[in-house]
Design a protein that fits this description.
The structure is a homotetramer of 494-residue chains.
Chain A: E1 22-23, E2 25-31, H1 36-46, E3 54-61, E4 65-72, H2 75-78, H3 82-85, E5 92-98, E6 116-120, E7 123-133, H4 136-145, H5 156-165, H6 171-179, E8 184-191, E9 196-200, E10 209-213, E11 216-220, H7 224-228, E12 232-236, E13 242-246, E14 249-253, E15 263-264, H8 266-271, E16 277-278, E17 281-282, H9 283-297, E18 304-307, H10 313-323, E19 331-333, H11 346-351, E20 357-359, H12 361-364, E21 368-373, H13 380-391, E22 396-401, E23 414-415, H14 423-426, H15 429-436, E24 440-443, H16 446-452, E25 466-467, H17 469-472, H18 480-484
Parallel strand pairs in A: 15-25, 18-21, 21-22, 22-24
Antiparallel strand pairs in A: 1-23, 2-5, 2-11, 3-4, 3-5, 6-7, 7-8, 8-9, 9-13, 10-11, 10-12, 13-14, 16-17, 19-20
InterPro entries (chains A, B, C, D): GATase_2_dom (IPR017932), Ntn_hydrolases_N (IPR029055), PRTase-like (IPR029057), PRTase_dom (IPR000836), PurF (IPR005854), PurF_N (IPR035584)
Organism (chains A, B, C, D): Roseobacter ponti
Catalytic activity (chains A, B, C, D): 5-phospho-beta-D-ribosylamine + L-glutamate + diphosphate = 5-phospho-alpha-D-ribose 1-diphosphate + L-glutamine + H2O
Chain lengths: 494, 494, 494, 494
């Protein structure tokens, strides 16, 4: 049933959404501290860039049982007031921020906001995930046939129903049982009355890290959310690992058949925050290294290196340091944007990117400018930025892109346009340059990107070290539901 | 999981709630008209007295599928605006208003607001009920054991899960299958993509009527809701009957073992609107007849007959007509009450009934006054009204109550205080008179009430014609869940 | 500057507004009690029928100075919560409820909500009024010429500006000075830091009463608002009197030239609550007496006397008692109406009076029915009610109206349609009967009405005892602003 | 009367408010375009950094007259929707964003939100200002004595009342008349039905620029707001100039006695946006130049130059370019902050700056870090940042501040702590270094700052080229109201 719900949440989206890939979720969980939900709220605030549309927290208190709150909007606006937080008690809590929705025509009903909760015969469990279950539609059909009633369009609910029907006894055993039926790329935090559980899919596509705070334990999508609560970063959850954390400590399970890891390379490029650490590497330094690679691969004579704010900044700094061309803020971001406008007037709608960015006119005039951006998706923003820069009197505009051409959609928990909307799906680099009408346009090579993330030999084409499906079209997990809906994979021969 | 939800709905309750029995729900459904949800909204507005806390509508449109909206507050405030109603399209819709909740500690989560929707293998169905399933807890435990995940604390959800697991093929067959597992006193409206379904429990405790509007059909808790949409009253659904209405017409099923009907006698006294017709009798005229019976059973020499507004009005008119003592509005109701106050100040809280009622001082002064009320539940309001009347200078105060002493809680979809809170559970009529400190207090006899509703011979004690458990303690359906929770039935010998 | 304000308050109006005269304001003030604003909130709640659109309270605390809150909506919803009331401290407070606005095209800006506050050289004063200043436009023009800046379209503001510019020293002296420039029909409550002030215009058109509560004093539009706070009714403020109340007691001033009183007779018919006392008479009993007069003046053979709820009720009871024809509730009011719908759908809009009233079908069928209503303004509601009654199968419909034909607009603080919209302005009683298509239609005579309010000789045409301009067209205060805007007075010869 | 208003606007403030000087207002006006208010909304959005608490727009339409809307919160949230903007019609509009309030104990009532409107004998005028009238209290007292009624605590209202009482005929003449009574540092935009008026105080302390868009004219606090609407920057309004713009063009008046200009030097340091042009200089380039000056004045051996985001960024880039020490983002700002939390829990409150900033741990560890910030006000933030950097393992921390020590409050429209709260008011540079416990702390010299803004010879102490009272204690306009309230000026001898 398509939800007829009270809030039009479309205003929570950035005006340039169509022109960025967007991570769909951030997850966080804490056990063994006083008022765990407070920690979760802070952690989710630090993970807000992974999902700005809605958030939810479930906690468990020995006396009051499970408690939950789910809201549209920012963590900051929903999960900081006394009145809400005092309804989320106890030493154990998990939380979730989400960007958008799977399947519900671009709108989220509050019932689709995670964590998802289910009452089993042996007690309740809550679960939240980041990523995507690629056989969710098939599983859902099967479960409905058997008499399960779904209440949301969330993938997490499949796992809960599989667990409810499992023949195993304990919740962790039921979860292992359920996970073996599930395909996809996902990280999970879950909780029972006494356990915090974390899972990473066999390929480890989506991130999940373990931290320690006082006597308690933390699970988080990124390390930057450990920092905000003063937790110590212990290690990443291993691909295919399931950790069950109780007051006795952390126990590891490996429910899946072992596979070679394929971490999402785009987390390094854009999704993760620059102050997080991924695979032992500072994201900021990786992005600076991408800029240095770009300067080596695609040098150009110019007066200024300017980032497209804010995501292009570290790569622009790297490009400047490697090339010796001065770094400057040629484009200023209006810090009062972030969400788009509600029912805007015609005139506002037409403003587009000018509401958000302004050219530093006096600086740019007469200069040859290198603009560094993280990616080109549909190309609409790039084109408008180019026009603004030229209007301001720049002599030349050179685009340098900190990722290879995005030619394929991601089906692993990232909001991507349909393939035909991706500029690189239909145009060569040369054609894109003509389309954008800039003096030059260069993307980092796939090998260059692999080098920047630490693979000195570049990409191993036989056995790629990362998931780079959005660039290469090689999907490490078959997107079954998508293929069923008509998506055409890249021919093997290609 | 106890819901930690955003709205404190307690303000939606009347300040005198504790002192009235409250019907918990009204239901309404329409098939075969344009924009069926508009009719449902009007019908629910007319049934608002049966549930003021929240309301919901589900509709089905051939193209857009099932659509729903559920809101706290009045129908008038939620289901009349263009923007909401245009999301509820199609020729088939059902709706529900509810007063309070079963089991959730006095607060309703929005997910407990009906109609309840479930997706089955052969398509979806929505369901709403008025009444109570007396073995809901046991059914729920059994279903959870088998792996069903509940999303609400609503009884309706048991029926949906039973249907989801039924081995039968069609939805009506599955519903029959499910209903055979269910005990209690309830009326149901349900819908599939093409069918409107109505069910009344085997005893016919709760009302449900059938009407016709243009080429379409209507199901409603009361006839007053047929009037508002200009529908013609056709007949009551029979106790134990299940009607399945399609564009081919109305089909009758009788899934239950036949039993003698036991319609709720309190619907005549208080729950139903005076302009409804129950069992072929005008509710208003029945109440006037109760007043006449009372005048005959419990005459008293006095100057004025005054109703306790508004529910005592028809009985007071009857008493006046039978006794010849002039009828007068001795107590004036403030029409701007209806809901209570949000976080009231101490002083406001202490005002109690004075916020709602004021004595017509100039009229009352020096007079011997007969006050006619519909019932005495906890006696708190009666006591305050007595004080107000005496403060205003009345010479004598005589209470006449249009129902027998309410000595037992109702477990069939009515919000009643626990037994020990009922004044009549612990006191005789004489003791209540002393407690209320009035010059006289008389309740209509149970036989008198039966006569007023048309049973010339009064109550048939061997085979009572109505459910009168709240007066007699004789429960026609065993309240299993309640007994499990410690409720003590009246000893058989009593 | 026409206000561009955030709330469309039109939804606060009854759907039948166009068909009732509406009192525009209620006023209330208290001095000498703890937390005076709490008393004012309760008083305004009891006066809510005099103005449902908005309300305001100003209080004064020796330490915190003047405090105020002004809100759209019901008193109950705005002035009962701890959080609002704790911002309104001190032993002295005044308040105001308003129905609609003068001059602002049917919408009220929050700045037009009274009480109005001004800071003078010798301290601040707040003021609220009920009624109308008939030379407000001329005064306003004069004040603007002299350099006063108006912030609202409220008449009260003229008085504040006149006071600010007065050459007198004390605030009461300045108020006397200001009042001498003012023409119209109004009652005023005002306050300084230490004084509560009440004023009634020279003719005493609008009501104002004095009460005592503990050691404190109360001013109120009606006595029913004394009851709610447990205050004792002392006396009416005399026409032309100004009372200045301090902790030393009540002091009387008479700033105006003495005139014969002309109290508004329509307060008896409709505006005041039935449990109020006006001119020493119970409003309820007056209305019952009107019914008795009507029965004598306009008898008819019939089966039932039914009120048009709720305002026709006392007169219907009187008619029944005098005629011996049984009283019955033939029309039931839906108690969940009261305000109209927001942006209603087409279908809802077309429902009109059916959303609010339903015929008690079973009772009416085949009967000859007398319908008693308080007044006929535009006749639109009367016509719809007649249709509903006939649809329900009534054999005959006889209208009896508890006031004479309303043929002239009121300019003294009452919301009336323009003269050409008044049915009685263009039709005789006979023509109205034909227009409404009823079996008979009779209004009480003007003399009959005067008798019912206690003038045994009827109306003194040379020197009418009341203001009855709405019936007679004889305006006791010249409506200067209206004449300036083109209103044509009744020719003297008529 | 202290306002008892519905919104607690304190949540609109940054959590670090106490530690930044804050410009109090931005102003914008347009004449001669279709739907002028749309332009004003866009302009105010670009000026949002000058005032985040509330905004207002007044427009004038030949047919509908003056229209206005005033709201708390961001321009983006209030002035972009169709429904609001269609109430602001016509070719002429002015607007205002404000940060905080003068005199109302830290809270703004909606009536204090500008533009302020007044109706005069010859028509209405609206006015908005940025800055402060230093003799406002005295003027207000005088006006109240004469009988003016004030409705707000805004300085602008003094000007309106002076204009209302002026003996001159036209509104521009009356404004000149009024301005001659006014002392202070302010820029004004005002409008009549046909004229857009701009004024800058005689010293030109606050900025105001003139632009052209199509056939229309624009007044704005900064040039960055011309860019967003595509307007061309024409020139700055001269100190002491009043421009009156009609459809005939721009007319200049000079109502004040000529004085040497004293533009606010802090606009260059912090208040203005980096993409604005002030006094013919790019703000960004000035800030970069400040960084270069700082590198020359206060060099230090280190590994990284990091800005305190976002205001320290251009100076950090300049420092890096001049020193050759690599620039890096050592501190990452959470872009979902900006406003503080509503009723935060204890734990949230204690988080302070960590909610907003996180150290880029992997980058900082073991490094000697130069932190560049724009200013030090109370020092609380600087201290917390230092702790975070050291916690992350930095080897050394060196603070470089892009302005001289802030030792004096600003009384010209800037929100500054009281003098004793300013760190530099009670400590020498050395003491501040010890207080902050950093390895070194250096402020740019006052001469260095003058050089960076283009005064090659540095500051002319006899006749300073700028207002630098916050650094020097030399106030170019006597802060009369403040002195009256007890503020002690720096002794002349000092």
């Amino acid at each position: 049933m398509p939800p007829a719900h009270p809030f039009d949440t479309s205003y929570l989206r950035d005006m340039d959404d169509g022109d960025k890939l967007k991570e769909e979720c951030g997850i966080f969980g804490v056990i063994g501290v006083d008022e765990a939900a407070n920690f979760v709220a802070l952690g989710l605030h630090a993970l807000q860039h992974r999902g700005q549309e809605a958030g939810g927290i479930v906690s468990h208190h020995p006396e009051h049982g499970f408690q939950s709150a789910r809201r549209f909007g920012y963590v900051r606006d929903n999960f900081t007031s006394q009145s809400v937080m005092e309804t989320l008690q106890g030493p154990l809590a998990i939380g979730h921020v989400r960007y958008s929705t799977t399947g519900s025509k671009g709108q989220t009903a509050i019932r689709d906001v995670q964590p998802f909760f289910g009452e089993f015969a042996m007690g309740g469990a809550a679960i939240a995930h980041n990523g995507n279950i690629t056989n969710a539609n098939a599983l859902r059909r099967e479960l409905i046939e058997r008499g399960s009633i779904f209440q949301s369009s969330s993938d997490s609910e499949c796992i809960i129903h599989l667990m409810a029907r499992s023949l195993q006894r304990t919740i962790p055993e039921r979860m292992e049982d359920a996970l073996r039926r599930v395909e996809g790329a996902f990280s999970i935090v879950a909780m029972t009355r006494t356990k915090l559980i974390g899972v990473r899919d066999p390929l480890g596509v989506r991130p999940l890290v373990l931290g320690q705070v006082g006597d308690g334990w933390v699970l988080s999508s990124e390390t930057c959310a450990l920092d905000i609560i003063g937790a110590t970063f212990i290690r990443e959850i291993a691909p295919g690992e399931m950790v069950v954390i109780t007051d006795k400590g952390v126990e590891s399970h490996f429910p899946f058949r072992p596979r070679k890891p394929r971490f999402c390379i785009f987390e390094h490029v854009y999704f993760s925050r620059p102050d997080s650490i991924l695979g032992g590497r500072s994201v900021y330094e990786t992005r600076e290294a991408i800029g240095r690679e770009l300067a080596a691969e695609a040098p150009v004579d110019a007066d200024l290196v300017c980032p497209v704010p804010d995501s292009g900044t570290p790569a622009a700094i790297g490009y400047s340091l490697a090339s010796g061309i001065p770094y400057a803020m040629g484009i200023i971001r209006n810090q009062y944007m972030g969400r788009t406008f509600i029912e805007p007037t015609e005139q506002i709608r037409n403003m587009g990117v000018r509401l958000k960015l302004n050219v530093n006119r006096a600086l740019i005039e007469g200069k040859r400018v290198i603009l560094v951006d993280d990616s080109v998706v549909r190309g609409t923003t790039s084109r408008k930025i180019k026009e603004m820069i030229l209007d301001a009197g720049a002599a030349e505009v050179h685009f340098r892109i900190a990722s290879p051409p995005t030619a394929w959609p991601c089906f692993y928990g990232v909001d991507t346009p349909q393939r035909e909307k991706l500029l690189a799906a239909t145009m060569s680099e040369e054609e894109m340059r003509d389309h954008l009408q800039v003096d030059s346009l260069r993307f980092i090579s796939l090998d260059g990107l692999y080098r920047a993330v630490g693979e000195a030999q570049g990409r191993n084409d036989k056995q790629p070290q990362y998931c780079d499906a959005c660039f290469s079209g090689e999907y490490p997990v078959e997107p079954s539901d998508q293929i069923e809906s008509g998506f055409e994979m890249k021919p093997a021969a290609e």
